[in-house]
Amino acid sequence: MASFETRLFINNEFVDAKSGEYLTVYNPVDDSLVSDKISSAGEADVDAAVAAAKAAFKGDWGKTDPTVRAKKMRQFADMIREKAEEIAGLDTKTMGSAIGTQAMGYGVCADLFDYYAGLADKIHGETSYPTSAGKYKITQREPIGVCSGIGAWNVSAVLFGWKAAPALAAGNTFLYKPSEKAPLGTLALGALIKEVFPPGVINIVNGGGKTGQLMAAHMEIRQIAFTGSTATGRKIQEHAAKSNLKRVSLELGGKSPSVIFEDANLNLAVEKSMEGILANTGQICAMASRVFVQESISDKFIEGLADGFKKVSSGDAIGDPTLKTTHIGPIADKKQYERVMELIEVGKAEGKLVTGGVRRGKDGLYVEPTIFKQTPNTSRIVQEEVFGPVVTVHTFKTEEEAIEMANDTVFGLSACVYTESISRALRVTRQIEAGTIAVNDWYFPGPDTPFGGIKQSGYGREGGLEGLIEYLQTKTIQININTTT
Ligand code: NAD
C-alpha cells in the first residue's frame, strides 16, 4: 500500500483518473520505484476539474467576503507549516532535493498564503472626478474566474504558492498541475485544502506535457501561469493564442550572471557564489551560473571557490537527501542527469576544468560541484541552462566589458553584482538586463517583492503586489450624472 495519495484532487475529493493513465516516478538516490500508479489526467479529468472550479467561482467562493477568504488562507498557511517536513519528504523521494531545502519551500508557500491573505481585503479601485459632461467613472478590479498554473519540479511548493495564493486572494478559483517529476508533495496538500476551502476552489491534477497542453488550450480556463523551460513556455503561449486567448504569464529559464569587481569583499563573493551555484543542487532558475570576475582578483576567487567546492564534495553536505545535514542531493532524474553530464563534456572539450566534472560515487545520480574556466561565450555550456551544480568562470578588465559579457545571453532572469562602491552598484544594476538583481548577495525571492524575468526568461511577475495584479482584471464603469432633462 502506498503511504501517499496518488489520485487526482478534484472538487475536494481524491478521485481516480478517468483516463486510466498513470505516471511512474523513481527515487534518484537508488533508482528504486516510488510509484507507477500516479493518476495522470486526460481530457475528461481536466474538464471535470475546470467544471468544479467554475462552479465554485459562480457559487460560494465568488461571493465570499475578502476577509473570510483571508482567514481561510491564513488557516491553510498554518496547516502547511505544521506538515511542511512530512510533505516535503514526498518531493525529496521523487526528485532527490535535500529535505531541508524542500521543507523550506513549503515554509515559503505558507508565507505566500499569509502575505496574499493580507492583500485580499485591500483590492481597491479608483474614481475619477466627473467631467463637465457629467461622466462619473469608477474603476474596479475584479477576479478573472478559473485560473490555472503549471509548475516545474525543482521547488514545487514555492511554484504552487506563487500562483495559488494570489489567485485565491483575488477571488478566483484555481487548477494546478505539478511537474511529473515531483507529483506527490503538492498533491498531498489536497488533504489540507479539503479541511479549509469549499469544494472546487483549488483542484490539483497530475500529468505530463499532454495534461499541461489540455490546460493551456482549455476554453474555460481564463488565465495560466507557467513555470518551466523556455521551450515549453513558447508552446503554452501558442496553445493560449489558438484557444481562448487566455492570459499567460511565463517564469522561464535563466543563465544568471554574477559580476565580481576587484573592490568587492572577496570572501563574501566566494561564500555567496557557492550558495548561488549549489543551492538545491544547482536546480534553481535564478542560480548564478555564469561568474565574471575582474582579472586582478580572478585567481584568488577561483582558488577560493574551488576550495569550497572540494570541501562540499568530500564532506557530509552531499549525499542522502533525507538527512538534515545534506544540502546537495542527486540530480532529479536520469534524463536530467544525462543532460548535466553532456554539458559537462562540452565544458571539458571547450574550456578548462578546475574541479568536479565527474559523477560522485557509483550509486545515485550525484554530480560533483563543478567549475570551468576559459570557456568561450559561444559555448553551449555558457549559453544553455545546465540546471545542475556547474559554473563557468570568466574574467574581465573593465566595467563596460563586464556588462557586455553579462548581457550576452538570451535570458534575463536574475543577476548579482559584488562591489563596495555604491555608485558602481547603481550604474551596473541599471545596465544589466535582468528582472531581479542582488548586490553583494545571491538573489533569493521573498513573498513581498515581484520575481520574474525579461528577454527569453519570460514575462509577468510572481510575488508582491504585481503578483496579485496578474490575477485581477480591470473594469471601468461610466455613470452619467446629468440625468435631469
Ligand atoms: P519543462 O518545461 O520541461 O516542464 C515544466 C512543466 O510544463 C511540467 O509540469 C510539464 O509537465 C509541463 N509541460 C511540458 N510540456 C508541456 C506542453 N506542451 N504544454 C503544457 N505543459 C507542458 O521544465 P522543467 O524541466 O520541469 O523545469 C526546469 C525549467 O524550469 C528550467 O528551465 C528552469 O529554469 C525553469 N524554472 C523557472 C523558474 C522561474 O521562476 N523563472 C522557477 C523554477 C524553474
From TrEMBL:
<dbReference type="InterPro" id="IPR016161">
    <property type="entry name" value="Ald_DH/histidinol_DH"/>
</dbReference>
<keyword id="KW-0560">Oxidoreductase</keyword>
<dbReference type="InterPro" id="IPR016163">
    <property type="entry name" value="Ald_DH_C"/>
</dbReference>
<comment type="similarity">
    <text>Belongs to the aldehyde dehydrogenase family.</text>
</comment>
<dbReference type="InterPro" id="IPR029510">
    <property type="entry name" value="Ald_DH_CS_GLU"/>
</dbReference>
<feature type="domain" description="Aldehyde dehydrogenase">
    <location>
        <begin position="14"/>
        <end position="477"/>
    </location>
</feature>
<protein>
    <recommendedName>
        <fullName>aldehyde dehydrogenase (NAD(+))</fullName>
        <ecNumber>1.2.1.3</ecNumber>
    </recommendedName>
</protein>
<dbReference type="InterPro" id="IPR015590">
    <property type="entry name" value="Aldehyde_DH_dom"/>
</dbReference>
<dbReference type="GO" id="GO:0004029">
    <property type="term" value="F:aldehyde dehydrogenase (NAD+) activity"/>
</dbReference>
<dbReference type="InterPro" id="IPR016162">
    <property type="entry name" value="Ald_DH_N"/>
</dbReference>
<feature type="active site">
    <location>
        <position position="251"/>
    </location>
</feature>
<dbReference type="Pfam" id="PF00171">
    <property type="entry name" value="Aldedh"/>
</dbReference>
